[in-house]
Amino acid sequence: MYTEQILAIPTENVWNILNYQEKGVIKALDVDIMDKLLLHGVFRPRNILEEDPSYKQIIPYAVICYGNEVYMFRRLNKQTEARLHNKCSLGVGGHMNPYGDKIDIDYLHHELEREMHEEVKLGEGCEIVDMKPVGFINDDLSEVGKVHLGVLYHITVSNNHIEINETEKMTGEWVAISDLTKYYSNMETWSQLYCKLIGVCEITK
Questions:
Q1: 205 inside domain
Q2: Known Gene3D superfamilies for this protein (predicted)?
Q3: Domains in the chain: how many in total?
Q4: Which residue, 10, 35, 100, 198, is the most exposed by fewest CB within 10 angstroms?
């Protein structure tokens, strides 16, 4: 039986390198820090890691930007993750699978772009013009969050010609940053934490 292998880092090593924050975005990402973290990266079966808080599963999580807008996803009921049904998300990304022979920043970027192209299609003239690290997302207050660490990126594209690939699983639209407050209460936690980071919304719960 096939068991998916995903990248994880021992939780102890994560907090030896980063400043611990129970819930929020840790604005401490640069190439040196990411390289230090990835030195501790290992591949383990996903089904085991989901129940093991001694490891943090590494999830690249990119907000797609164009001008003063970001691309917002709305997950439909056919999504695999039931807890995310009908939730809005500002991030694209997912687990990192084995690729190549190195666990480094180039590998992380490859996996981030792979996840992006799985979920969205770049239309005519639309290209990635910048991929900028922002920080790390952590949420140890939830059972799911305890075993995941988000690596937050901004991906800037050259125009707004983007389409959803799997339209039966999600919808997508461009939303002005100033309008994000309208959707905040229906966003998944990581997207709410991103909103707090950019000063659009305040977390009240």
A1: no
A2: Nucleoside Triphosphate Pyrophosphohydrolase
A3: 1
A4: 100
Q: Is residue 121 part of a domain?
A: yes
Q: What is the CATH number of the domain that holds 92?
A: 3.90.79.10
The rounded radius of gyration (Å) of the Cα atoms in the chain is 16
Q: Model's pTM, two decimal places?
A: 0.91
